[in-house]
Amino acid sequence: MTHPFQELIDHLPANARSELSLAKGEFLFRQQQPAAAIFAIISGRIRLFRDLPDGSSVTLHVARSGETFAEAALFAENYHCHAQAELETKVMRLNSRPLLEAIALHKDLGLHLSQILAAQVRDMRAMLCLRDIRSADERLLAWLRMKARGEQMNVAIDRPWAGISEELGLTKEAVYRSLTRLQREGLIERADRQGRERSEVIRLMRRP
Amino acid sequence: MTHPFQELIDHLPANARSELSLAKGEFLFRQQQPAAAIFAIISGRIRLFRDLPDGSSVTLHVARSGETFAEAALFAENYHCHAQAELETKVMRLNSRPLLEAIALHKDLGLHLSQILAAQVRDMRAMLCLRDIRSADERLLAWLRMKARGEQMNVAIDRPWAGISEELGLTKEAVYRSLTRLQREGLIERADRQGRERSEVIRLMRRP
DNA sequence: CGATAATTTGATCAATATCAAATATCGTGG
DNA sequence: CCACGATATTTGATATTGATCAAATTATCG
Hints:
The structure is a homodimer.
Chain A: H1 6-10, E1 17-22, E2 27-29, E3 37-43, E4 45-51, E5 57-64, E6 68-69, E7 82-85, E8 89-95, H2 96-105, H3 107-131, H4 136-147, E9 154-157, H5 161-168, H6 172-184, E10 188-191, E11 200-204
Antiparallel strand pairs in A: 1-8, 2-7, 3-6, 3-8, 4-5, 4-7, 9-11, 10-11
Chain B binds a DNA duplex through α6.
């Protein structure tokens, strides 16, 4: 798995990064603790949440395999939330200090970091936009359109629909049913279903 | 209105920025057109959407007053979507060239840009997280908790609930009803309702 | 004071969540 | 290669909730 940060990582001294393993329930860092690194998930899942003065807490993010998190910690004195492993989890740790030094030295890196973050902003805005679509069919269709590549408007589905459903903010049942409806209405075609590559391709049909 | 980009803007030569007025329906830029600037909305609303090979289109974002957009255009050859004013709209335009030059010169600016973007990423992740909460009451409560400041857990509401409802992905009716339910259950208190400052304060009650 | 926008309450409906269960597929070890 | 368990996909029945449409009330601003 190659992270968006890969190029940054490659320009860092070896001692700037390390790999950590966390048991389920273990904390990667705690709210208030001095911020010293940002992270990328290799495998597993980390929940970020904040304790509030009234004793309650709010979840701010659940980071999954391949994702980075705590980027804002680069610019903060302390972490503003807890990071707890929800599963046995492996993360890559990038120390702020050498990262900032590398950026100061090599100004392309700073821009590159901005580029990575700008892409994330763009993608997340699109996901938020999707969430504004109330109808399951329309939301799924919009998601497929965003993912579609090429003149053919094909979308390769490379992971279980259950995960995609979560991303869409729908239950898996709702998504499966939408898929059948969209297919029945001729808006999509499903192919390669049986392939041993455990992958499926959705083709969007020309029909604005 | 002070943008997050303000500090960046202050470090730019005057000719790097300009203010544009768009009529309702007018395009700020078009998909495929060479990318030459990023923008911040002064007033009005801009919809970003992409045309797809099959003739359909998807909305990627609706940027509102105070927001910036097209940041990724800094790093792209061409715009990857259209930007169209949904209302009469004023935007601040920041030309990519001088912006990139200023960053190359003054490396703090690059970091500062990263910082702005990292904050946006953090905030948007939190908003996405909110959307995963299905119950209107819970979602609103979580939003209030995120916004709450200080030991007192007060939230200043400085704009109509209709706008907040949209941000939450709920209708205004749903939000008003949630507010009364939460109040009835003693989870929140509403104060300063009548104030001529047209603002209201929600106080979260200690009750984890 | 009148006009406009914001807040509130009500009734109804449609859609998705939920719970349950059947079928299909995949991966693995024998 | 096959059997078996785990995971993924699919379909069904039902309930809940928020969307929608409507309308009343209240606040805000000239």
